[in-house]
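Subject: Sanity check before I submit

Could someone independently write out the structure tokens for this chain? I want to compare against mine line by line before I put it in a report. The sequence has 119 residues.
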Amino acid sequence: MARYVDGFVLPLPKKNLAAYRRLAKVASRVWKDHGALEYRETVGEDLNPGVGRPFPKQLRTRRGETVVFAWILYRSRAHRDRVCAKVMKDPRLASMCHGPMPFDLKRMCFGGFEVIVEA
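---
Independent answer below. Compare away.
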């Protein structure tokens, strides 16, 4: 079965982790209520594994920042588009976006991905 994932990575000031977690908990309920199959938000723990280019280097994290890696799973891209259309109209999300964010949106990396292997 084909699946689709929205994924994102962002640098987050460690001092804002609690505020980010609160925002993510609301967002997870909004996406799940509108049909997302899975919603995950993770925070960096082992960010310099010695292989490849570490996330902090790629994102140019600053002193006191960590990395958030997150994804939302859907049945397909069409399903994602339907879910996101509803999410963008949800007042719970709108209310979160009218104040200062706990991270810099300009430094967030985001994209939609077609799943090619699922085990």
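---
OP: Matches mine. For the report I'm noting this point. Residues 3 and 57 are 30 Å apart (CA to CA).
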